[in-house]
Structure formats: structure tokens, C-alpha cells
């Protein structure tokens, strides 16, 4: 796995998947994973996307194979956006299609609002409302639980809502153990900051064509709640899939990837 070293002490790991024709010059898609995940979360998307685009999927700082963050690390959205911009600069990609799942969609919305020149299109998959009421108040109890039990119990308890009622049990177990590998120090700092961040001022400033994907029964936000913030993005569309998962990027990976490809082709026909 390639690594971008960022002084003083961050090694940012990432993968590049490109199965396009070798004589072409494909555009690039940047995939931003969710909390307690890594680039591996996109396993169901890569076979679809990488036939048509160069796909870049980093392990966000602190997660996956990237350097774990200390619990007192000063997390900010701008800092994460800078990480990803430095990665794309290293790969010599000026503009790209941006896709974010779960909290990765929160980061992606701020990214598109604050760095509009970098983003061709934006796709948000199973992502929370711009401000999550009550999350900050629940953080102290979560921090105590992480300190005492690690990440796995939290992942296991929330997995039914994440993946929905029809996801296979073997898949639920895989996702639970996958998320459980997250460093406790990273998880504590991230939950205290990014997980409860307020991006209400950013969302109306997004100018990139935007696709928002959710499910009919998402426990993260109702369709009406999702539509309310989606409609504040001037050039946006909402796709509602059947089901009751909120991590629809995982539960319906192929359908979401195909919808993303169709959206990019429709809104960016020169790609």
C-alpha cells in the first residue's frame, strides 16, 4: 500500500485502483470512508468505478494503516481536507469527483464548500444531517466505554442499524471486526470533535453537482430530514433506496456505485 509521509509524524496510506484502458486519461474519483473504517470499506465499489475512473481511496489519518492519532490530537475539518488535498497534489490530480460515506460525507460536504475548485461532482452516501442533535452530549459516555471496552462493543451494538435487517450475518460479523480494529486513541479524539461537528453553514455553499443517497428507513435521518438539507444545495438530487440501513454504501454497494457512475456521466458528460 503506498504511503504519503506528512511531517512531522503522519504516514497516510492509500490505494489507487485503475482498470481503465491504458491508452486513456481517466478522471479521478476520491473516496472518503466513514468513522472506524478504512479504504477497505469500498471493496464493493471498486469493481464498478475502476473500470471507468482512476479511484483513490485513502485511509484517513488515524484509521486503517495510517498512523494512529493520540487522544488529544486537535482534529479539525480543515486539517482533514488539507490531508486529502496534499495527497491529490502528490498524485498530480487538480480536480476530481468526490464521494463520501457516513461521516466521510460530512467531511466531503465541507471539502466541496471550502475547496470548490477541486471538486467536479459530489456524491454523499448515507451521511448524517449537517448538525447531529444530541451527539455531543452522548460523547462522554462513549469515551468511557471506549476506554474500558475498546471499539468492538460499540460497533457490534450499532451494526443492525448500520447494515439493516437483510444484511447477511457473516457480513455483520466482518464489519464488526473490521471497525473494531480502530485505535482507541483515534476513536476517542474523533468522536469528541469530527463526529459532532456543525457544517450547517457549509452546505448551502456547495456549488458542485451533488447526489445524495439514503434509504427509506435509515435510522440516521428520515427521508424528510435528509431532503431538507439536500435541497439547500443549489444543484443537487436525492436518491432514496428501499431498505432500513443507514450505511447504504456498504449494504447496497453495487447499486450506489452504479448510481454514482450514472450521475457523474449525466452531470459531467465530458468525463
Please write out the topology.
Layout: E1 3-6, E2 10-17, E3 28-32, H1 46-49, E4 54-58, H2 77-90, E5 96-101, H3 103-114, E6 119-125, H4 135-149, H5 152-163, H6 169-180, H7 184-192, E7 210-215, H8 223-230, E8 236-241, H9 248-251, H10 253-267
Parallel strand pairs: 3-4, 3-5, 5-6, 6-7, 7-8
Antiparallel strand pairs: 1-2, 2-4
Helix pairs in contact: 2-3, 4-7, 5-6
Overall description:
With 271 residues, this protein is α/β, with parallel strands linked by helices. The chain has a single domain (3-267), classed as Rossmann fold, CATH 3.40.50.1820. It has helices at 46-49, 77-90, 103-114, 135-149, 152-163, 169-180, 184-192, 223-230, 248-251, 253-267; strands at residues 3-6, 10-17, 28-32, 54-58, 96-101, 119-125, 210-215, 236-241. Strands 1-2-4-3-5-6-7-8 form an 8-stranded mixed sheet, with helices on both faces. Strand 3, helix 1 and strand 4 (54-58) form a beta-alpha-beta unit. Helix 4 (135-149) packs antiparallel against helix 7 (184-192) and helix 5 (152-163) packs across helix 6. The longest helix is centred in the middle third of the chain and has 15 residues, at 135-149. It is globular.
- At the third CATH level, what is the topology name? Rossmann fold
Secondary-structure element pattern, one letter each: EEEHEHEHEHHHHEHEHH
Structural class based on helices, strands and sheet pairing: alpha/beta
Low-confidence stretches: none
Care to count the β-strands? 8
Adjacency order of strands in the biggest sheet: 1-2-4-3-5-6-7-8
Instruction: Name the overall outline.
Output: globular
Straight-line N-to-C gap = 27 Å
Largest sheet: 8 strands, mixed
The domain count comes to 1
Share of helical residues: 25-40%
What is the name of the CATH class? Alpha Beta
Q: Into which percentage range does the β-strand content fall?
A: 15-25%
CATH architecture type:
3-Layer(aba) Sandwich
Summed over residues and divided by their number, the pLDDT gives a mean of 96
**Rg over alpha carbons:** 17 Å
Number of helices: 10
CATH homologous superfamily assignment: Alpha/Beta hydrolase fold, catalytic domain
